[in-house]
Amino acid sequence: MKKSKIGMIGTKLLIFSIIIVLIPITMLSYVSSDTISELMISNQNSELNTNIGILNERLDNVFVEFDTMTAYTAQLPIVIDAVKNKDEETLQNFANGLEDQSWVDLATFTDADGNVICASYGNTDAKISTYVKKLIEKDTIYAYDVISNEEASKYSDYELDGYDALAIFTVAPVYDGESLIGTVTYVDIMNKDDYWVDRVKEVTGDEASIYLNNVRISTTCQKNGVDLVGEIASETAYESVLKNQDYVGKVIVDGNSYFGKYSPIYDIDGEVIGMICVGTPEMPFVILMNSVIRKIFFIAFSSLIVAVLVAFILNRKIVVPIKKLKNSAEIFGHGKYDERVSLKTGDELEELAESFNKMADEISRADKKLKKDADELKNSYDELKEVDNLKSELLSIVSHELRTPLTSIRGYVDLLKDETAGKLNDKQHEFILIISENSDRLKRLIDNMLDLVKVENEVLDFKFNKLNIKNTVGEIISSLKYFADSKNIILLEDVDEVYIKGDKSKINQVLANLIENAIKFSKNQTKVTVIGFEDKENLHLEITDQGPGIPKENLEKIFEKFYQIDSSSKREIGGSGLGLAVCKKIVESHGGSIWVESKVGKGTSVHILLPIAK
Q: What is the pTM of this model?
């Protein structure tokens, strides 16, 4: 049978080499990609944390700067007197100067209730008292809060585009002795003010944004030179921030992908009113990952080429000698036992070739001996066949020659039994019955011999008819009653009225043989039982005796021709060893089966299955 290419050892070697290379490369690729991915995520988080730190630092520095300026101003005697006396002119000059020095959107002086006394550049109507009171009540120096668009538009340097403003409030209390008489307050609007976010861009080159709620109000992100304010933040990010949690993840800004981090902005009451966000472009990391993947593919491809080359070299070193061995084996397999292999590889293949040659020598010698033995066996078989033919011919001749005088004897015995030749006394009648019984047994033996010859020559004829097995068994038991009585053996019958399709004479022959055997091998004063019943679609006959039983190792042999358990010349019980062999052939010819169950010392049961007539 021609082998497929995949089954050739060279192909297997090539595939194996490729697998050996691919496994570590695949593992390396997985580990490398996973490690690089983890490093990228770690670097991204580190960079985002750095950037958010820079933004927070900028905010903290501004708070410190504002706090320093307001606190210093609140402690000036001239300011204390002006607030105490509500000297608007003096306070106006200070307010204008504070705004100019700090670039805040609004510098004010308020009374102790937070009402504006004076504000920078005439913004005296600024409504900030509510915010100032919160800071005073909570003793807080600065805080974030939301100012309405209408209020913030009064003093913001930028157009607010209809949005409310996120503002930083810085308050320094003004005391007259220990009495609070007012405050110095800074208000800085963060909308569109890039001062807060530019520091991140300057230091890292990454982007930063500030959100009022989820609306971007200040950013370094631009499109065509215009800040991208007014855009809505990622819903996922905003929901996370509202839960007081930082959000780190991928965000899209104007079609560009960024890794971003969002942190919440709280008002003085601890409520989330906005977010600060920093983002680093995803593209550099993607480029790095793609570069690593390309290098891994290059290494994998190079290794694959090397593996293929090595496989081809090994193929020539290994496969060529194996092919020589294969060719020699095929020649040897076609009967040319003088074929030998010559390999000089200096390795296990050479040892294999030497072993092959030794095997060839042994097989060659064995073949010669086998041919010689086969010739002798054929001659012996021919002789045995001739002897077997002579045996069959002898059995046939003897059986026919015995049948003629036996028929005459049986005829005269019948005449005597009928008292045709004169009346018999009881003793004579008993003797005549014994002669009749034994002549019947002799007839069955002759019939068995003739049937055996027919079985061997495959000429056993059958005439099938519908038989009532109950009647058939009754007839056989009646014919053997005298034989059973002579041994004080009770014959018991329990056979259902079942019909089979069979040859009456052959079925009678089987039953007579088996029941006679049961009687013959049973001890005196015992029982022989014949039962018959329907077993699914078969008649099941069971003939049981109470004889010595048959050893287990002999059960399979008892159906062989001429086989007898005790073959000594001085057997107490006679027999030819033909009966069971003929019975088996007859039962099987009826489409049935026969087997024996026996226990030594308890008895034997012969079972017969025959198909029920339909």
A: 0.47
